[in-house]
Amino acid sequence: MNSIPSKQPVEPESSEEEAGEDVEELDGNEEEVDGEEVEVVSKKTFADLGVIESLCEACVNLGYKHPTPIQEQSIPLALEGKDIIGLAETGSGKTAAFVLPILQALMEKPQSLFGLVLAPTRELAYQISQQVEALGSLINVKCAVLVGGMDMVAQAIALGKKPHIVVATPGRLLDHLENTKGFSLKYLKYLVMDEADRLLDLDFGPILDKILKVLPREGRHTYLFSATMSSKVESLQRASLHNPIRVSISSSSHQVVSTLLQKYIFLPHKHKDLYLIYLLNDTIGHPVIIFTRTVNETQRIAILLRTLGFGAIPLHGQLSQSARLGALSKFKSRSRDIMVATDVAARGLDIPSVDLVINLDLPPDSKTYVHRVGRTARAGKSGKAVSFVTQYDLEIWLRIENALGKQIEEEDIPKDEAMVLMERVGDAQRVAIREMKDIHESRGKRRGFMNGGRGKRGRDEMDQEDG
């Protein structure tokens, strides 16, 4: 199998002039293609979509037997050279939907800095790069990752090696465009904005505007993927895509798969920890995600569980970059069975084979509920989601049920069996309180050394959520 050389592109006519121009707004007359529901499995193969043999082989090696609906709808259009707006949720296979056409075009006309993928978070950027390298493994594709919180010099060295694909968060990409000598994207052929709604929710809009102004307009193909089509996303589409075709896969924002068993537990707020431990005792050895609303609660629950002997690890937006990547790695490798997470983990993270989702704190709305429980019962497998409902949560729980269009069944937990655990759980709660106090004291000291706090958020800080 031939590998892709890092050949320098031939400079197109008037590219310098066009790179600095403002992009024209379109008239909004894009075509639209409606797809099937995400859980429908295609009978087609990737070869049927026009994917070349070496990339089909890579798909087989990764266990991709048939394309998902977003792949089936998007890939043929992308191979025809169309700009695409893909409306699909996390877990729909959208990454391969844009990576495969880019790699196929790269093989036909190889050059360095061929494609750019923008992602809202660092974890998602790393996951996309892993899929680029996996799908391009047979053709030796080189991929560089530019994210905040990592060494800029090392990233500049990686750029100097002329990668084919760059995956970046917007803030760090702009830093390199402005400060890294010799780095330019004026020959770029493919631009992808993944989770565009998330990019804009995190206030990357002004940075995206600056990036778009230095990218070539002529000869560039652009793909925009988003879970929703807000007015902000519409504006971004008009500013960056040329006569796009819209591919819509998610048929309902409140739809859950039929293989998901949903339950709730009605309980006093003071007994949430107790019932959580009772529930986890029945799921030892199975991967579980526990969702909380705050960073503090995520940390406290992780400490509580570890004190009681569970392999728990926290994930939230205030962890350092290395800690967040380490948490994901440990959970994926199953060295830790339980991840305690804020909603930063509910979107964009490729966490396979989760058997149980626990909403320890109810989400603020039905849309977030669907995102959370969507971490289980994937690809036709069964899964379970259990929500803790206290006396303070009744109104929001009724709204969630109303949006889902069904009443969720109550989980039967014998109260006397749960109460047997009270002494052990109480001891662990006291340990967690002491450790949380130490964490807050040490954080306060660090802030003192940093002149009283974080101040205004910089580009690197914008690459992560607050959790």
UniProtKB/TrEMBL annotation:
It comes from Melanomma pulvis-pyrius CBS 109.77. GO terms for biological process: gene expression; ribosome biogenesis. GO terms for molecular function: ATP binding; hydrolase activity; RNA binding; RNA helicase activity. Belongs to the DEAD box helicase family. DDX47/RRP3 subfamily. Residues 75-247 form the Helicase ATP-binding domain. Residues 13-39 have a biased composition (Acidic residues). A motif (Q motif) lies at residues 44-72. It comes from the Eukaryota. This is Putative ATP-dependent RNA helicase. One of its GO terms (cellular component) is nucleus.
